[in-house]
Amino acid sequence: DGRNVKMVKVNREGKITNSSYVEIPEGVMVAGKIESKRILTDSVKVARKKLGTSFNRCSLVINSKDVVVRQITIPIMPAENIPRSIELELSGFLPIATDKYMIDYILRGETVFDDIRKYMLTIIAVPKDIIHSYADCVKDAGFKVEYIDVIENSIEKLGKFIMSGKGSFPKDYLHLQIEHQKTCASIYMNSSINMTKNIDNGVYKIASDISEMLGKPIEIAYNAIFYEDFLYSERIYLSEKKVLEKYLDEIAAECNRFVEYYKNRNRDSAIDTIYLSGSYSQIKGIAEYIQDRAGIKVKKFSDFVNEFVVSSDNRTDIMDYTAA
To answer: What does the alpha-carbon distance between residue 231 and residue 284 come to, in Å, rounded to a whole number?
Structure first.
């Protein structure tokens, strides 16, 4: 996400047995682009050493504001014609040429519109330069990349994994991922990703505003956001509280607009829970504050899923595993 490397070790049962977290120096990642492959590679090596593993096979999960996730319908056609049809559909709203993207799709089923049978597809498009640059750094750190995923799809798979183990998990919900460069809201319907929306309010903007307002280095602002209770502490944090509330109010308002848009398109489905994840979901009081402003129940994703995906000997309240 431009701020850290998260790494987890998973056993044969799909349980997380260990984790590591390494901060990336400021400026290594700018607007989702890698400015220093060497430093990022070194950070991955440090994360691997902290994890304490000799394994070299890994999966790479990319979290970038440049990832595009869309739901589309296309006429029923032979499988070999689907990729070209998808490219034509995407060409209208991708910011750069479709041949600059790695494009994959999930066939969700069929529907009928104006008496025409159509496929329902989830499309995921990631710029090739982002995939190659991330994969190169991971490979240079000594790993063999088995497969690459995006955070939006990995959350869907996590929910289905929990349900496959007879865990209780809602089929319709909003997932809010708060990270360094962006906040991503994704709505899942029937356990599958339905629509996504990028919100510009990443923690970088919050830290920058606090840093500028108080005249302190940005690193001090980052640490304060994470460790101090600006929202509900009895101590007086007037300036910091004002900045944080401004951005969280905007996130809550965007969530409400997003949910209303979804409801207008899916009147038989209700979103009554927001699941919060990402490195900065650990900001003190953030779940309670967004719940109060949005009027929708908010839960920490890690509090809910750690029971199912984290080995009982390795659970912790410090690390949000689902963000990895």
So the answer is: 7
